Structures are given as C-alpha cells and as structure tokens.
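This follows on from our talk about sequence and fold. Go ahead and set the record down below:
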Amino acid sequence: MNPDEQHIAALDRQQHSNVRVEIWGKFQAMHGPRHIIDGATPAIGFPLGYSVAGAEVGVFIAILIAVVLAAFRLIRGDSVRVVAASVLVILVFSLFVEITGEGRGFYLPEVALCVVLTVLFGSTLLTGKPLSYTVSRRIRLEPAAPADPAVRLHLHRRITLAWFVFWAVHVAVMLPLYLANKVVILGTVALILGKPALVVMLAVTWLWVRANGPRPSEAEGSIVETEVT
C-alpha cells in the first residue's frame, strides 16, 4: 500500500470512528441507557411472572417494577411528565391483560402500534410526502423552507423507507408470535425490538439527517431536548 492509499485508509478509519462517537453521543443525549433500563425491567418482569405463576402475577411484577423505577427517577429529579408516561405505558399494557383475559394481551397495544406505524410510513411513501420529513420539520431538524426541497424529499423518502422496514420487521416477527400465543417468546422479542431499538433508530435518523444538511441553526439543540417516552 503506497503512502496515499495509507493516508486515505487512515482518514476512512477516522471518519468511521467519528461517526460511532457521534452516534453514541446522541444516544446518551437522548437518555438512551436510561430508557433501555426503564423499558427493559418491567418488560422482563412480566414474562418472568407469567411463566412462573400466570398473567396476574406477571402484571403485578411489571407494575411494581415500573412504580419503583418511577419513584427512583422522581427522587433523582427527573421530569414528572416522562416518568408518569413510562408508568402509564405499563398500566395500559396491563389493562389489556384484564380486557382480553389472556397473557398475550400485554403485548396487544405494542403489536397494534407497530401495524399502525407500518401503514403510516408506507402510505406516506405512496403519497410522495414522506412522514420523516413532516416530523423533522415539526421538531426543527429540517428548515421550514429549504433551498433544495426536491433533494430533501429524496433524502426523506429513503429515511421513511428505513422506518417502514423497521416497523414492518416488528409486525412480521411479533404478530405471528402473538397469534400463536407464544407469550414468553413474544416478550423476549418485544424486549429487543422495543425501546432499545427505537432509541438507536432515532439516534441514527438524527445523524442521517444531520450528515446530509442543511438544517436550521436552532436544530442543534431541538432533538436533544426531545424525550422518548
């Protein structure tokens, strides 16, 4: 390898290293580790309780863990709105166990949401108004009046397609497990494809849009302040 090739290879390694650092920084700025813990622990509690003693015990353990975590977060001074939303999600999931009378009902809201989001992202690809573009403009990650709207729309068609595939994978994996009543396996899959994957996808999307600027100056802080509930 000649000196020029070595220099190019070194620059390429540095660029990939910078991307990894930036993604990790964005992941931390969006409170990714905290959201993974908050989302994972009740999600682990339910299938464990279900496998040992049934749906009612699973619900009790999930709610108990969510409440204990909420109390800990509030003591640390975290946002009441975010903490309350996290508990509310578990309460809603638990309510569907009571409504359906089945353990798999705990995952019905998540499966239904994945179906809805798959349809939403897919339909906006067909209409030519990609959903990621609309959302990015609302949170000011995109300028209200870009100088090159056709280029930005092309970028967001690809981003929206990525989100469509993201949610379609959820549906393709989780819906058959739900219909087959494989509660413990469904819980394990939901744990992996739930909040952890969502936070990573949000961080990657932010970097994708940012790397393909332009964007308004105030966009730098806007997405950082957005909480994932």
User: Anything to note?
Assistant: The chain has ten helices and no strands. Confidence is low (pLDDT under 50) at residues 215-229.
